[in-house]
Design brief:
The complex is a heterodimer of chains A (113) and B (116).
Chain A: E1 4-7, E2 10-13, E3 19-25, E4 31-38, E5 42-49, E6 56-57, E7 64-67, E8 73-78, E9 87-94, E10 103-104, E11 108-112
Parallel strand pairs in A: 2-11
Antiparallel strand pairs in A: 1-3, 3-8, 4-5, 4-9, 5-6, 7-8, 9-10, 9-11
Chain B: E1 3-5, E2 10-14, E3 19-21, E4 24-26, E5 32-39, E6 46-52, E7 59-61, E8 64-69, E9 74-79, E10 88-96, E11 105-106, E12 110-115
Parallel strand pairs in B: 2-12
Antiparallel strand pairs in B: 1-4, 3-9, 5-6, 5-10, 7-8, 8-9, 10-11, 10-12
The chains are: A mainly beta (113), B mainly beta (116).
């Protein structure tokens, strides 16, 4: 089992460019999440999905879009990158509900110049 | 409003010292879940423990122990006889039962440095 994987691991973008971060999980989890981690801020929820074909906004959704066309994949898109989106992005998944621990991917370090 | 506070931004100890990481939470829910995660220098997040609001028993796992006190809304984490490998950022997190999406509300983390 690979658990939760993220592609790419690192990326540098110029302001205004677009990109998609891919998250994949092989645990048959229903719930998936995208968080961003900034220095001194902990992790903040960007978007989440409680099942295939569903997505919803989290705490800091502006500038991002997501899609969950397949249960195992959760994509995070930046349509027009801004320097404020420089961050480390983590994907997580869980069986569902509030009790189960979330499994995190290794993170994607994104720099927007 | 829900909130998790980790007042200690950074802690530095010498190997074999005991260290306690503080976590204070705020929630209006009567049913909630608390978590601790470890983020070593390699960057991944590692699950350490989960506790639900109805279970105030302290837990011990090897050199790690957790003290959950609802009266003070705290869920503190103690490492006994710390080791260099314990150096990491530790996050406390809260999940509220009323939020069906199950997302975690994280504290800002405490960076622990254990020096040999």
């Amino acid at each position: 089992n690979a658990g939760v994987t993220q592609t790419p691991k690192f990326r540098v973008l110029k302001t205004g460019q677009s990109m998609t971060l891919l998250c994949a999980q092989d645990m048959n989890h229903e719930y998936m999440y995208w968080y961003r981690q900034d220095p001194g801020m902990g992790l903040r929820l960007i978007h989440y999905s409680v099942g295939e074909g569903t997505t919803a906004k989290g705490e800091v959704p502006d500038g991002y879009n997501v899609s969950r066309l397949k249960k195992q994949n959760f994509l995070l898109g930046l349509e027009s990158a801004a320097p404020s989106q420089t961050s480390v992005y983590f994907c997580a998944s869980t069986r569902g509900g509030n009790y189960n621990e979330q499994f995190f991917g290794p993170g994607t370090r994104l720099t927007v110049l | 409003a829900q909130k998790v506070t980790q007042a200690q931004t950074e802690i530095s100890v010498v190997e074999k010292e005991d260290v306690t990481l503080d976590c204070v939470y705020e929630t209006r829910d009567t049913t909630y879940y608390l978590f601790w995660y470890k983020q070593p220098p390699s960057g991944e997040l590692v699950f350490l423990i989960r506790r639900n609001s109805f279970d105030e028993q302290n837990e011990i796992s090897g050199r790690y122990s957790w003290n959950f006190q609802k009266s003070t809304s705290s869920f503190n984490f103690t490492i006994t006889a710390s080791q260099v490998v314990d150096s990491a950022v530790y996050f406390c997190a809260l999940s509220e039962a009323r939020r069906s999406q199950g997302n975690l509300i994280f504290g800002k983390g405490t960076k622990l440095s254990v020096k040999p």
